[in-house]
Amino acid sequence: MRRVHAFARRWQVTGLLAELHDRLCDRVREKAGRAVDPTAAIVDSQSVRAAANIPRSTSGRDGGTKVGGRKRHLVVDCLGLVLAVAVTAASVQDPDAAVPLPERLRAMIFSIRLVWADGGYAGSLVGWAAEKLRGPSRHQ
Asked: Could you read off the pLDDT tens digit of each residue along the chain, which spans 140 residues?
């Protein structure tokens, strides 16, 4: 197991894992009849229970779902392929945690023109995106 971990770590540090991910996503998008570069994305979050060995300083309680642990914030394309991820304590509110995701997404994928998000992201994230990314601030 140590040997596998050592290889995985080396591939991560050298960027090989990210390269493999990107190439596989390109092939999946092509096979689905889509352009390699996505133009739309979806952002959402999910609270997950933390294992017993997770420090309390990095976990919290999601007031909406009543789950104690961490929250993963994902940006995916319309096929569900992962474009960007952030992990926070579950107590962090969605709009606050998601702010770095559009910046990271814009730096990596220039073709994204539209990002869908549910009502939990309204308010500060929509205003921030309109101001910093110079996009229209439409939301429902």
From this structure: 889 999 999 999 999 988 999 999 999 999 999 999 999 988 888 888 888 777 777 778 777 778 888 888 888 999 999 998 888 888 888 877 777 887 788 788 878 888 888 777 776 666 766 676 664 444 44
Helix (H, G, I), strand (E, B) or coil at 66: coil
What does the block give as tokens for 118?
């549910």
**Number of helical (H) and strand (E) elements in the chain, helices listed first:** 5, 5
- Distance between CA atoms of 37 and 30, rounded to whole angstroms? 10
Amino acid at 59: S
21 vs 112: CA distance, rounded Å:
18
Check: pTM over 0.85? Answer yes or no.
Answer: no
Please check whether residue 86 is in contact with residue 70, taking contact to mean a CB–CB distance below 8 angstroms: no
The Cα 28–Cα 22 span in angstroms is: 10
The SS3 of residue 64 is coil
29 vs 80: CA distance, rounded Å: 10
Phi-psi region at 41: left, alpha or beta (left = phi > 0; alpha = psi -120 to 50): beta
